[in-house]
Amino acid sequence: MFKIILESASGEQLAKVFETHNDEYLQQDELNFDFLGELSTSSYDVFSSRDMENLLSELHRLKDQLSNVNAIKHIEEIILLANSCKEMKDSRLIFTPF
Fold this sequence. Notes:
It is a single chain. The chain is an alpha+beta fold. The protein has helices at residues 23-26, 52-65, 69-87; strands at 3-7, 13-18, 45-48, 92-96. Strand 1 (3-7) and strand 2 (13-18) form a beta hairpin. Helix 2 runs antiparallel to helix 3.
């Protein structure tokens, strides 16, 4: 399971979302998803506010491929965090299995 954390530039945790077994659909093939293809179950993955445009594109593509209602709702939560991150300069979105 991944926890997705929105942090400010100063390191303050602003929001966090998670869903049991979200690793089953968040981890994607590196050939088709640059950012989601990087997700690791053994370390943190940190994406800056500058990465959000590409990450949002991947999240929307993934959402369109899913049929599970809970998974779709969770992706929508992550999209909201990613949009917030995009708007806040020097913030970051962290995907962590810990």
